[in-house]
From TrEMBL:
Keywords: Transferase
Gene name per UniProt: tsaB
Organism of provenance: Pararhodobacter oceanensis
Annotated Low complexity bias: 193-205
NCBIfam families reported in the protein's UniProt record: T6A_YeaZ
Record region (Disordered): 136-157, 169-205
GO cellular component: cytosol
Single Gene Ontology BP annotation: tRNA threonylcarbamoyladenosine modification
Protein's recorded name: tRNA (Adenosine(37)-N6)-threonylcarbamoyltransferase complex dimerization subunit type 1 TsaB
Amino acid sequence: MQDAPVDAPVLGFDTSGGWCSAAVIRGGAVLAHRHVAMSRGQAEALMPLIEEVLAEAGVDLTELAAIGVGIGPGNFTGIRISVSAARGLALALGIPAIGIDRFEALALEAAETLPLVVPALRGQVWVKPADYVSDSAPELHDTPPTPAISDGEGAGNIPPVHPLPVAIARLADARRDTPQPRPAPLYLREPDAAPSSQQPPQMLA
């Protein structure tokens, strides 16, 4: 694989929550950005949305230098959709796929004086302390601190500097020339599922 030009375009996308979002940047400039709210159907919507964003940006898939993908935390199924798509596209195009976690995206160019907040299940939130440049692990809280930087809804929330897919694309662009691990889902807790309470059918001899 040959090195791509410094100003080659980079694609970023995310389906870690109730949305399908994608962006294309080139040399730091945002060429196109789409965010579509949806509670389900991301698997069917992602590739058409990527095609729309690329067309709006005037960029062909073969021109991309890298792909940035959101790895969570967030919806288990949604994260797997994006990570699988990024790996497949990267393999087909011979370019790197770079996983970006949601806290990194929130923190991009933000003031290091406010905590970062990502919604969790059952009304709880994941909180990363104000010193989020460190390796401190996110903590689960029943209520979010305020004020805080968050891409969710709620009083006291301060939006991030960049929309989620734009931040993902920018971070991927900055890392594309250094070795990166394959994107993998970031799960901060086990899947919220329990075994069925129904008795299995009786097996007949």
